[in-house]
Amino acid sequence: MTDSQASYTVLFSAGESSGDQHAAHMFAEMQQLCPGIKGLGMGGVKMRQAGIDIRVDSSGIGVIGLVEILKHYGEIRRALAALKRIVVDEKPDLLVCVDYKEFNLKLARFAKRRGVKVLFYVSPQVWAWRPGRVKTYGKAIDMMAVIFPFETRYYEAENVPVRYVGHPSVDKVLPQLGRDEALALFNLDPAQPVVGLLPGSRGNEIKRMLPVMLAAAEKLAAARPQLQFVLPQADSIADAELAAHLAQAQVAVRVVKGRPYDAIQCCDAVMTTSGTASLEIALLQVPMVIVYRLAAFSYWLGKRLVKIPFIGLPNIIAGKGIVRELIQEQLTADNLAAEIRRLLDDSQYRGSCIGGLGEVKRQLGQGGGSRNMAELALEMLRGG
Q1: Transmembrane residues, as ranges (predicted)?
Q2: Which of 54, 104, 271, 350 is spaced 20 to 30 Å from 60 by Cα?
Q3: Residue 62: which of 53, 49, 50, 71 has the closest Cα?
Q4: What is the pTM of this model?
Q5: Rounded CA gap, 59 and 334, in Å?
Q6: Beta pairing partners, 54
Q7: Count of alpha carbons within 13 Å of 312, Cβ hemisphere only?
């Protein structure tokens, strides 16, 4: 049977917005290579649009931090149980676990015990903390697909099958319009600076980060009324989650749906929650400040576990602080506004930031990550 005639069934498990996007792009490539393939599982809007049969909606369980996870424990447990039932009842040919580490580790163990091949996409950050997890994951999977080239050595050292596939963001972070066209579409004045607000793709991030971003925007606008503010809304965030915060703000913020990269390229500076978004902004070469805030206990625990000095992906990849990070108590409206002012007004500082982002982009290479993942999955399906 050729791949064009094959009817493989692939179970996808993606618990967060970035994973939802990665899985969607991967499945689109798989469909091109093997039109008869069937996808089902847990994910969000992007996976559904790609043709994956979403059995579990992940929009309510993409949380970070021990305290946050405990609050959503019942929902997370029900999602895991539902996916386990699919493994047993529908016997998929392959399980693709996309990020969402601890949840997917449990699912991977379960599936492998029942004879389902497991492909894990996006390695846990073993280079940052708990390197012993390499062995743990090695026992639960058949292949680890990593998105940074330096990650392969950790798995090779423990004889765990690993493949560097490239970072999926390199292919998908492509504006659809030119900058002038985008400014016109969003009714932004090209003669005045634009500041972006990216408060995150999870509900708890919106609650923690958006109020301080809006407070910083108010301080900036008070001194410079000509400033324009734009907020690219993540697909995983409902309108109502933003509306309550924006209604109370004393500054006008233009919300953009469905065109995040067109919106970001319009910006002269961006305040962004840490995560995949910071890497996407780096690929677009827009100066930024990275922010994050967790529940106090989650942060205390993380400080004792994480062994690297940065949380922002651009800084981690660069191996140095090319972008300012405002974490926990450092995240105040005054500090955030001051950093945006510096990025807008200090040409030397701004130029240094853009130069560092250029090096990050170079290190991420030429792309092809989603196609590489599709080919790897089909290789495993064919018995490779």
Answers
A1: none
A2: 271
A3: 71
A4: 0.74
A5: 32
A6: 41
A7: 28
